[in-house]
Structures are given as C-alpha cells and as structure tokens.
C-alpha cells in the first residue's frame, strides 16, 4: 500500500468493510480475551460459595486455567492460519469460545467450570493471534501502525471497565449470568465476522503445515538470542501482572475492605496501562524501543523494590499501594509492546509462527510465575511483593544478558 494515496486508506483486503468498521471488528475480536478474564473478578466469592470451595486461593484457578488454555492455543493457531487461512481458524476458535461459555453456564461442578474456562481460553487464542495477522495481511507500515493503535485503544479500555461490568451483572443476577453475557458477546462477534469479515490471506501466500517446516520455524525462533531473551523477559514481567490480577479480589476486598467498590480501584490502576500505550505510540518513533522499554523495566524494578520495602515495614496503606500498582501498570504498558517488537524484529520471514510461539512462551511463563505468587497468598501483600521484586530482577538480568550489558542503546542489527 502507498502511504500517500488516499484511495489506499481502505485496503482491498478487507472489503466490503470500510476502515472504521474494520477497526471496530478487530478491536471487538481482540476484546474477547480480556473481557472473559476480568469480568470474572467480582464473581470469584460467589463461585466459591456455589461450589463450596473452602480455600480462597483455589478460586484463582478460574483465572489461571483460562490463561493456560490461551497460552497453549497460541502454539497451533498461528501455523493453522498460515496454512488454511485466517477466516476458518478464527471462526472455529470463536465457535469453541461460544460452546465453552454454554458449558460454563451449565457447569454442575467446579472441575467442569475449570474445563470450560480452559476451552474459553483456547478459543480466544485464535482471536488474539489471528486479529493481528489480519491487520498485517491488509496493511503495512504506518497504515498498519494506525490500525493497531486505534484497535489497541479499545482493547486496553476493556480490562479497565470489565470488573465493573461484571459487578453490574452480579447486581441483577447470579455469577452464571456473567457467562451468559460472555456467550452473547461472543456470538455477536462471531456473527459479525461470518457476515462481514473476508478471508485476508491469499492462497498463494499460505505456508506448509508439514511438521518439519513448523519445527524448523519453531527452532529458529527459540534459538535466536534476541527473540528468546525478550520472550523470557516479557514472561517474567507478565508473571507479576498475572499475580496482581489473580489476587485483585482478595487484596482489595480482604486486605483493604473495599467490598463492591473494588472494581473502581482496579479500573483506576489499570488506566496506567492505557496512558502508557498512548505515550509509547507517540514517542517510540523518536526515542526507540530499547530506550523506552529499558527505562520502563528499570522503573518496574524500582517500584517492586519500594513495594517490598514498605510492605516489610508494614507501611503500605491503600493510597500508596494504588500509586505503586498504577506505576507497575504504567511501566508494564511501556514495556510489553516494545519487548514484543524487539523479539519479532529478526523473525520477519516466519512472523506468523514466531508470533504464536512468542505468545505461548510469554503467557505460559507468566502463568507459572503468577500462579506461584498467587498460591502463596497468606492474607498479606508480602508474598506478592517478594514475587514482584524477584520477577522484575529476573527480567532485568535477562535483558542485560541479551543486550550484553548495554542498556538503552540501539543496535545496528538484531542480536543473533
């Protein structure tokens, strides 16, 4: 596409949809994942009461099993869409999501509910991987950046409002009503995609699904110093973020006694990510990915150290915790997009498969770290503070190794 020809603003790859509709569809597809994750936060105590779960930490499995399905699904969604096209894999994933929502609504046991959550996560892995691929199919350069920025503005808003939306649903119905809402939203997105979203990957550009070809692409991904290093670093910082989400209800309600108002505190803190996304999009072209992400990682580690120190001294009141958590979210938002870009920088020739593997690595590491921190919760913020600090130090050490001790400095070529 030409960046100077106005007629090229609407890619022929997604006609008959115009540009605004295309952005909204992409954002709505991507929103399935954070909506299904964060709407559940206010409902965890209700689910525990319904299934007689005596240990509050076990309720975190409602969130972590969803992420396990999401992480595992990414291994296969990218290669499948590169071989069979975007549309059938996307629609199939959304159909799995809808069926899983029905299973969750009717779940007779906690174990069945966890199975449904894992299937929901597996289904949404298709939406996350393929939505990005569709944008890449239709746009390049600044046009692609514009589409993704507009879609991400909507996508980032979802975690901010989802817990409050879930709390609103609980005011008029029981926790199963949240899954009804998720199912209806999924069906609406599915119907819209069936009717309006065309196939964007031409037959001539599809890749082989031969095991040798897929394994070769995977091997090229995990043996590249820069790609693997930033994947491991991203997974480490995601671990603390996942732990924060897993523990949000227990911390805000159990420790700080916010009751039904905790979604408002969660939303205020999550706004830090949205601010970071806006600032990163504005300044990354000038400052570069390394300067911004390495600075954000340094801030992330400093925030973790302050939180650990204040919690150790029993001096972490709610206002300070919210400020530190907002800074955590802000620094994470400044890191994650740039870490992803740095990891994918050397993998343009196998971008689809590499993106899937990168997503799986970061998500599964994040889940492992997040679950370890979350399951150690003892009614205080000390386990979270320790885990946050250790995971941030690990990410900083990994980046130092990847960059051979040279932070903030751009390299003339990708690190091999």
Topology readout:
Elements lengths: L18 H12 L1 H7 L5 H7 L10 H24 L1 H20 L4 H29 L2 H32 L3 H21 L14 H12 L2 H31 L6 H26 L1 H24 L5 H27 L6 H25 L6 H21 L14
Helix pairs in contact: 1-6, 1-7, 2-7, 4-5, 4-6, 4-14, 5-6, 5-8, 7-11, 9-14, 10-13, 10-14, 10-15, 11-12, 11-13, 12-13, 12-15, 14-15
What is the chain-wise order of helices and strands? Answer: HHHHHHHHHHHHHHH
Oligomer: single chain
Largest sheet: none
Mean pLDDT: 85
Residue share in helices? Answer: over 70%
Structural class: mainly alpha
Strand fraction band?
Answer: under 5%
Shape: globular
Radius of gyration, CA atoms, in whole angstroms: 21 Å
Please tally the helical runs, counting DSSP H or I stretches of 4 or more residues: 15
* Low-confidence blocks of residues: 1-8
Distance between the terminal alpha carbons, to the nearest Å?
31 Å
- Count of strand segments: 0
Question: Could you explain the architecture of this structure?
Answer:
With 416 residues, the protein is mostly helical. Helices cover 76% and strands 0% of the residues. Helix 4 packs antiparallel against helix 14 (351-375) and helix 5 (86-105) packs antiparallel against helix 8 (176-196). It starts with 18 loop residues before the first helix and ends in a 14-residue tail after the last helix. The model is unreliable at 1-8 (pLDDT under 50).
Question: What's a concise summary of this model?
Answer:
It is built from 15 helices and no strands. It is mostly helical and 416 residues long.
């Amino acid at each position: 596409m030409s960046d100077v020809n106005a007629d090229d603003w609407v890619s022929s790859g997604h006609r008959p949809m115009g540009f605004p509709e295309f952005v909204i569809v992409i954002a709505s597809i991507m929103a399935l994942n954070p909506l299904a994750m964060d709407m559940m936060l206010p409902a965890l105590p209700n689910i525990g009461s319904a299934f007689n779960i005596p240990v509050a930490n076990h309720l975190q499995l409602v969130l972590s099993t969803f992420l396990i399905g999401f992480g595992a699904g990414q291994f296969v969604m990218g290669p499948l869409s590169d071989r069979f096209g975007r549309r059938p894999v996307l629609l199939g994933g959304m159909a799995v999501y809808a069926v899983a929502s029905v299973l969750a609504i009717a779940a007779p046991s906690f174990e069945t509910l966890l199975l449904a959550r894992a299937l929901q996560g597996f289904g949404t892995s298709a939406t996350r991987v393929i939505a990005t691929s569709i944008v890449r199919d239709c746009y390049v350069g600044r046009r692609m950046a514009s589409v993704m920025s507009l879609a991400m503005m909507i996508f980032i808003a979802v975690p901010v409002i989802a817990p409050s939306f879930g709390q609103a649903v609980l005011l008029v119905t029981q926790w199963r009503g949240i899954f009804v809402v998720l199912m209806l939203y999924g069906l609406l997105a599915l119907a819209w995609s069936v009717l309006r979203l065309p196939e964007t990957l031409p037959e001539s550009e599809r890749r082989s699904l031969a095991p040798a070809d897929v394994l070769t692409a995977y091997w090229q991904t995990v043996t590249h110093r820069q790609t693997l290093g930033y994947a491991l670093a991203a997974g480490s910082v995601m671990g603390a973020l996942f732990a924060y989400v897993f523990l949000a209800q227990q911390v805000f309600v159990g420790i700080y006694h916010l009751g039904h108002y905790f979604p408002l505190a969660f939303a205020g803190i999550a706004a830090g990510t949205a601010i970071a996304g806006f600032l990163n999009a504005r300044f990354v072209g000038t400052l570069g990915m390394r300067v911004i992400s390495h600075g954000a990682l340094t801030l992330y580690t400093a925030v973790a150290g302050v939180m650990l120190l204040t919690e150790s001294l029993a001096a972490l009141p709610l206002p300070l915790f919210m400020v530190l958590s907002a800074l955590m979210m802000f620094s994470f938002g400044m890191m994650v997009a740039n870490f992803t870009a740095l990891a994918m920088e050397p993998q343009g020739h196998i971008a689809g498969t590499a993106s899937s593997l990168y997503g799986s690595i970061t998500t599964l590491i994040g889940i492992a770290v997040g679950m370890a921190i979350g399951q150690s919760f003892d009614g205080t913020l000390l386990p979270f503070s320790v885990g946050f600090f250790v995971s941030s130090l690990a990410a900083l050490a990994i980046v130092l190794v990847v960059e051979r001790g040279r932070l903030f400095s751009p390299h003339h070529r990708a690190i091999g």
